[in-house]
Design brief:
The chain is of the alpha/beta class. 33% of the residues lie in helices and 25% in strands. It has eleven helices and 15 strands. Strand 14, helix 8 (291-299) and strand 15 form a beta-alpha-beta unit. It binds adenosine-5'-triphosphate (ATP) and magnesium ion (MG).
Length: 353
């Protein structure tokens, strides 16, 4: 039967070419109507100047015309800013005030390092803090927080099971690392991603939290989409490195979150410059300089801070003692603490807006 559901079904495989995600999942297809074989719907973009709009419209029309009985297709293209959009069904976590994602387009740029140290720095300032390690393929937050050997308890709460988070340095942690045998192959985890992220949100005994930080896997993939669709988020922090290529990735990340009505709090530039351990007063711009500043200007986002490349930062991560705890006076610890303060400030400003 030709109805709005069958139209949505046939449109579901059509992707936003830049984000490579379903237009239907991105909530870009609305108001589908079918009258005597005449199909119409609204395509909602975040900017009317979207350079790909003609392609997207064409892909939609092609898909709908494959359905038998379709006489015509009318696509009404509109744009709305994130502020104008109504929030689809999202369920908050009781007791949890602010959920903040730390994300990046590329792998290995320092998301987990930033997420862990920002979480600990917020806890040091007196806030109640939780951390979700949403990287189900390479969960390393337990190691960075000195919790590799932690045993987490599962408790029965009424009908459902609730996970007790692990705890260290003032931060409550839930991670796939606690639930799997590290030697088990990771292929089976993909299809369960959605369920696992929801479990980490709703089936962990978080208690009262001022901030729940989510350390994301790299990219603009299913984890980002699942998170943004599930809970109302205070914002996302995008981590980049100074190279030019990182700009493109950051832009894609920004669009993805805007599309999902999640405010982007700002950009963190990591590995900005190198401080040799034996010459702490020297700095070398290994990857060039000013990339984070340019990216933030181009995207119109605040630069929340720049973190130097410091051996102590990596060593602290490997040893399980975050640098903001072990060497709070180092340049990178100071940068991370200031970034945590900026994030807290941006979240309160946006909450009042
Ligand atoms: N500023 C820095 N100085 C020195 N080492 C760093 C710095 N930032 C990150 N590292 C090191 O680089 C490696 C990658 O960092 P991290 O795991 O935080 O990146 P990621 O973006 O979370 O990676 P993935 O995409 O795999 O999740 C780690 O060994 C970390 O200790
Ligand atoms: Mg990581």
């Amino acid at each position: 039967m030709l109805d709005s559901q069958s139209i949505l079904n046939v449109l579901r495989p059509v992707q936003d070419p830049e984000l490579q995600k379903s237009l239907v999942d991105l909530n870009m297809i609305r108001n589908v109507t079918v009258t005597d074989g005449h199909v119409s719907f609204t395509l909602v973009l975040t900017t009317p100047a979207c350079p790909l709009r003609e392609f997207i419209v064409e892909d939609c029309e092609k898909a709908v015309k494959t359905l038998p009985g379709v006489e015509s297709v009318a696509v009404d293209v509109t744009a709305e800013t994130p502020q104008q959009r109504s929030l689809p069904d999202r369920q908050g976590i009781s007791g949890v005030k602010n959920i903040i994602a730390v994300t990046s387009g590329k792998g290995g740029v320092g998301k987990s390092t930033v997420a862990v140290n920002v979480a600990v720095a917020l806890a040091q300032s007196g806030a109640k803090v939780g951390l979700i390690d949403a990287d189900i393929y390479g969960p390393n937050a337990p190691m960075m927080l000195g919790l590799s050997a932690a045993q987490v308890k599962v408790q029965q709460s009424g009908q459902s099971e609730v996970l007790e988070p692990a705890f260290n340095f003032g931060v409550r942690l839930a991670s796939m690392g606690f639930l799997i045998d590290p030697d088990q192959p990771v292929i089976w985890r993909g299809p369960m991603l959605n369920g696992i992220i929801r479990q980490f949100l709703y089936q962990v005994d978080w208690g009262e939290l001022d901030y729940l930080i989510v350390d994301m896997p790299p990219g603009t993939g299913d984890a980002q989409l699942t998170l943004a669709q599930a809970v109302p988020m205070s914002g996302a922090v995008i981590v980049t490195t100074p190279q030019n290529v990182a700009l493109m990735d950051a832009r894609r990340g920004l669009r993805m979150f805007q599309q999902m009505q999640v405010p982007v709090l700002g950009i963190v530039e990591n590995m900005s410059y190198f401080i040799p351990p034996d010459m702490p007063d020297k700095q070398y711009d290994i990857f060039g300089s000013g990339g984070g500043q340019r990216t933030s200007e181009e995207l119109g986002l605040p630069l929340l801070g720049c973190i130097p490349l410091e051996m102590m930062l990596r060593q602290g991560g490997d040893r399980g003692i975050p640098i903001v705890v072990e060497y709070p006076d180092s340049a990178s610890a100071k940068a991370l603490t200031s970034i945590a303060q900026q994030i807290a400030a941006r979240v309160s400003v946006l909450a009042l807006a």
